[in-house]
Amino acid sequence: MFSKEKITVAYTVEKCEKCGMQKKRKFSEGDVLFAKTSKCNSCDGMTVIDKIFGETIEQ
Q: Could you tell me which residues come within 8 angstroms of residue 42 by beta carbon, excluding any fewer than 6 positions away?
């Protein structure tokens, strides 16, 4: 009877090559798998994009 609207939100997971720390953030235009992104906040390593995925939310 009532149809719920489905919205898909894209996320990017960055992972540090040195310590393995992961950070999930909203997807940004231009994100590419295995691209080096920034320095890790926990150690001196570089973070790379490890995963890009979407989550579906019903409203």
A: 16, 19, 21
Residue with tokens 């960055």: 14
Per residue in 1-26, pLDDT (tens digit) is 567 789 999 999 999 999 999 999 99
CA of residue 27 relative to chain centroid, distance: 6
Backbone angles phi, psi at 26, to 5 degrees: -70, 145
Q: How many other CB atoms sit within 10 Å of the CB of residue 45?
A: 15
CB-hemisphere CA count at 13 Å for 36? 7
Residue 46 to residue 43: CA distance in whole angstroms = 9
Whether the pLDDT of residue 57 is over 90: the answer is no
